[in-house]
Design a protein that fits this description.
The complex is a heterotrimer of chains A (286), B (330) and C (251).
Chain A: H1 4-32, H2 39-55, H3 61-87, H4 91-113, E1 125-129, E2 132-135, H5 136-157, H6 162-169, H7 171-176, H8 181-203, H9 215-227, H10 233-253, H11 256-273
Helix pairs in contact in A: 1-5, 1-8, 1-9, 1-10, 2-3, 2-4, 2-8, 2-9, 3-8, 9-10, 9-11, 10-11
Chain B: H1 14-25, H2 33-58, H3 67-83, H4 88-110, H5 115-135, E1 137-139, E2 146-148, E3 153-154, H6 164-186, H7 189-199, H8 201-206, H9 211-237, E4 239-240, H10 247-260, H11 266-281, H12 286-303, H13 308-325
Antiparallel strand pairs in B: 1-2, 3-4
Helix pairs in contact in B: 2-6, 2-9, 2-10, 2-11, 3-4, 3-9, 4-9, 7-9, 10-11, 10-12
Chain C: E1 3-14, E2 17-28, E3 32-36, H1 43-51, E4 58-63, E5 66-67, H2 73-79, E6 81-83, H3 96-114, H4 121-131, H5 147-159, E7 165-169, H6 177-194, E8 197-202, H7 205-211, E9 214-219, E10 222-227, H8 236-250
Parallel strand pairs in C: 3-8, 3-9, 6-7, 7-8
Antiparallel strand pairs in C: 1-2, 1-4, 4-5, 9-10
Helix pairs in contact in C: 2-3, 3-4, 3-5
Classes of the chains: A mainly alpha (286), B mainly alpha (330), C alpha/beta (251).
């Protein structure tokens, strides 16, 4: 049984990766203007990639992360280009379709690797402070998440990120000034999916790898995105970190299933208490 | 109730009568007990899918937590018969009320929300119920067994078990009655309001329609039928498990509705019956089945954004319009 | 004055943008008031507040002496204030007759309660369709109607509740001459026979001069000018501006 301090430290590390995932979901909401329920599946994909590499003797986290990112980007572009873009204007198709993709992936994962939890080796601790272990996965995932979130924040504030902001604000103008809006959309979808897979690959050693493991981070990211929005990358980061911490602590103090229940409760509460505050996050209707 | 027609499918096609005839004949034609059971459950799934279509199709409130109402009824039956020792008919009535209460709560919470947020809220509610009951164990009155989770809780029927034949014909009658009732409701004034608010909330509000009230009613009516299907399922299978609340079950209803044509009631009911019976009857494992559903769903949504029956109906309608418009001078 | 509707000190902001900065206007029984102003002057926002689609940040709205500021749009429809939309949003899967039936049923309960219900629903439905010139197209899907017929449908819906007041938001813009003439005729008949008050929102001064008893011009969220429609030409700068933008807007 780990100590509470250990849980808190690990919670910060986990939360940072969840933030990465939430940033991806926020980007999709802002640029593609859909609520993407398949985001959790890419997280799961990343974790399975890390597991599969380990079973083949590759334990390098850089390899796992880049491999996961590549595969998820390819699937993300496919999903964005061939499914999400054409059905964007039908809210039903987007909601049920993206959930359908997630379920498709969950079932495929169950057929291929089974429903029982798999795990990736935690690796030796790097340092110890008063009995609190700093492990390799934690430090790496924290640093990578911080770096990627920083890069995203920087990207959005620079001219290079202008197309994304413009599409988020007014797609007609973006189209009128000659931007290939559809292309930017599916590329964003692919990149955001890759980011979710990176988060999954980073956290693989810390969690039980199951086909449905992506649901917790999906709900967590949805909360973050509904509560914050796309522009404020750092608000998003700290909110996700806070929720990650909360979910870890509740899992530690109560039972693992409570962390998911708690997140579900928060999302319901958020939706019920702020129905009018969601206008900003509401995807555009054609 | 002439001309009140809110439902897009105005006439029940004659083919439906033929389907009913075949289904009545099948057991006599020597169907084995296994297939009889598959079809029996198929009838219940068809009603459950139709109940989704009332909320998600006709009223346009896309629910991704519809299993909540189904599970509330199965769990209600199981807990009240096994733990509280109620006779089955009484437990069934209470379970139906429980499902309706869950529907009223979900409707009240989601009434102020729009589009994808309704989907999100219902998804969260359904998942919360699933997660809770997955971990919740109950102890039998003697304390001998622990019940709950994936193992489930037994449903005790008062009296001897029903024969597969009885169950088959009872479920078929239930399906026919429910289908008739659901169609009647969607073609009533209430159904007209549902169709209107799912089409354009703005126009409906400007027409004096109290939108939250009618959304809540759609949820209650939908959950009543879902609950009734759940009670039938509990009686048929003799057990309530946490899977009765699962996201897969909610998703399945949305899938069949999308394939059959959202808002038509008949389409989703037939789609559920056909897909469920075909895949269950051939003994394919459940994960492959759900994978197949998801695949068919994605293809359907991609190529028929309005649902197969919906898209075809749209085409038929524009043809009819051209015919009626012929005599019009311009 | 024997006012039907009074909007008093209406203030509305969207985020940091102040759209309405304290507007007070009154509409008398059987009066036709024009609301004039250039694009972005806040006239649609004011219309949305009067019809109940939006809630004002400050100010109140009285209708027949009762405070209806917090009443929702559907409740106001049942109470006797109806409206049309600049961009009609027809029900995609209902026919014309079904669309009107929704509005008739929507207002029916309230009329029953007031003891105004006379005649059957079917007769009233048919008479509404005949009056608005939609009878021939009654079985058409509403979404397939032409622009002119969509406006007629908006009219049919708006008058189905036997309103005391109708708010017409740019209802005469972008119409053929024939459609415009027929809808103007319909409006005049309603005004004459049922003493319905109208609030006509337009950026076309010619329409307002033709129809209104009085015109209120707003700009930058304030009442800028108020007077007889014939004097609208004296309100030169904005009038010209408004008329020009109408011409360009249609191009």
């Amino acid at each position: 049984m780990p100590s509470l301090a250990q849980v808190l430290v690990d919670g910060v590390f986990t939360g940072a990766s969840y933030a990465l995932m939430a940033a991806g979901l926020a980007l999709i909401l802002g640029v593609v203007k859909v609520i993407n329920l398949s985001h959790g599946a890419f997280f799961t994909l990343g974790a399975y990639v890390a597991y599969l590499l380990e079973t083949r003797g590759v334990e390098n986290p850089v390899a796992a992360v880049s491999m996961a990112a590549g595969i998820a980007f390819a699937f993300g572009v496919f999903l964005g280009k061939s499914f999400i873009n054409p059905v964007r204007s039908h809210p039903f198709s987007v909601a049920v379709g993206s959930l359908g993709f997630a379920i498709l992936f969950e079932q495929a994962a169950q057929i291929l690797w089974g429903a029982h939890p798999l795990s990736v080796d935690l690796g030796p601790p790097w340092a110890t402070f008063n009995g609190v272990l700093l492990r390799r996965w934690g430090v790496i995932s924290f640093l990578v998440s911080l770096a990627l979130t920083g890069a995203l924040s920087l990207f959005l504030s620079r001219p290079a990120g202008l197309p994304l902001k413009l599409i988020a604000e007014d797609e007609e103008i973006a189209g009128a000034v000659g931007m290939d809006v559809e292309k930017i959309r599916y590329l964003t979808f692919g990149a955001a999916s890759a980011v979710a897979a990176v988060a999954g690959a980073l956290l693989a050693p810390a969690v039980a790898i199951t086909p449905t493991m992506g649901r917790v981070p999906l709900i967590l990211s949805l909360i973050v995105v509904i509560a914050s929005g796309m522009e404020k990358v750092w608000t998003l980061f700290f909110l996700a970190m806070g929720l990650g911490l909360l979910s870890n602590v509740s899992a530690y103090l109560l039972a693992p299933s409570w962390s998911y229940l708690l997140l579900l409760f928060v999302v319901c509460l958020l939706l019920v208490l702020r129905p009018s505050g969601l206008a900003a996050a509401e995807p555009g209707r054609d | 109730m002439k001309k009140t027609g809110a439902s897009p499918s105005r006439k029940i096609p004659g083919a439906l009568a033929a389907v009913a005839g075949v289904l009545l004949l099948l057991p006599l034609a020597g169907l084995d007990a296994f297939l009889l059971n598959v079809l029996t459950v198929g009838f219940l799934m068809a009603v459950y899918t139709g109940s989704w279509d009332i909320v998600g199709g006709v009223a346009g409130q896309v629910s991704l937590g519809h299993a909540l109402f189904f599970g509330a009824a199965t769990y209600g039956c199981a807990l009240l018969t096994s733990l509280a020792g109620w006779p089955f008919p009484l437990a069934a009535a209470a379970a139906l009320l429980l499902a309706a209460a869950a529907g009223a709560a979900a409707g009240a919470l989601s009434a102020p929300l729009k589009g994808p947020f309704v989907a999100l809220l219902t998804l969260a509610l359904g998942e919360a119920a699933h997660e809770y009951f997955l971990g919740q164990t109950f102890f039998s009155p003697e304390g001998a067994y622990s019940w709950g989770g994936e193992g489930g809780i037994p449903v005790l029927l008062s009296g001897p078990p029903f024969s597969p034949w009885t169950l088959y014909y009872a479920a078929l009658a239930f399906l026919v009655l429910s289908l008739w009732l659901m169609l009647r409701i969607t073609r009533s004034e209430e159904g007209l309001f549902w169709t209107a608010l799912s089409g354009s909330e703005l126009s409906a509000r400007a027409s004096g329609v109290d939108i939250p009230k009618h959304k809540r009613r759609a949820f209650v009516v939908g959950s009543l039928f879902a609950g009734a299907a759940g009670i039938g399922f509990a009686a048929c299978v003799g057990r309530a498990t946490a899977d009765d609340f699962s996201l897969e079950l909610s998703f399945q209803a949305a899938t069949f509705a999308a394939i059959g044509g959202r808002g038509t009631i008949v389409g989703p009911v037939l789609a559920a019956l056909v897909f469920h019976s075909l895949l269950q009857g051939t003994g394919i494992p459940s994960e492959v089945r759900v994978l197949f559903y998801a695949l068919v769903l994605l293809l359907t949504l991609r190529f028929f954004p309005g649902g197969v029956a919906g898209t075809l109906r749209e085409r038929a309608r524009s043809r009819r319009m051209v015919l009626q418009g012929k005599g019009r001078t311009r | 004055m024997n006012g039907l509707l009074l909007a008093e000190g209406i203030v509305k902001s969207f985020g940091a943008t102040r759209v309405l900065r304290g507007i007070t206007m009154e509409i008398g029984r059987g009066e036709v008031v024009g609301l004039f102003g250039p694009n972005g002057s806040g006239k649609t926002t004011l219309a949305n507040i009067v019809s109940g689609l939006l809630q004002p940040d400050r100010g109140r709205i009285l209708f027949e002496g009762k405070d209806i500021t917090r009443m929702t749009m559907d409740a106001r429809f049942r109470a006797g204030i109806s409206r049309t939309f600049q961009i009609p949003d027809p029900y995609p899967s209902l026919t014309v007759v079904e669309s009107v039936r929704v509005a008739l049923l929507g207002g029916q309960a309230a009329r029953r309660a007031r003891g105004e219900e006379r005649g059957g629903l079917e007769e009233e439905l048919d008479s509404l369709l005949v009056r608005t010139g939609l009878f021939a197209q009654r079985f058409w899907p509403a979404a397939k109607l032409s622009q002119g017929c969509l406006r007629r449908l908006e009219f049919a819906r708006a008058i189905s509740c036997r309103p005391r007041m109708i708010l017409l938001d740019e209802v005469f813009s972008a119409l053929s001459a024939r459609d415009e003439a027929e809808l103007v005729g319909l409006m005049r008949t309603l005004h004459r026979e049922e003493e319905i008050s109208f609030l006509v929102i337009s950026h076309n001064p010619l329409i307002l001069e033709e129809l209104c008893d009085r015109v209120v011009a707003i700009e930058d969220g304030r009442v800028f000018w108020e007077g007889k429609p014939g004097d609208l030409a004296k309100y030169v700068p904005a009038a010209n501006h408004g008329h020009e933008s109408e011409i360009h807007g249609e191009g």
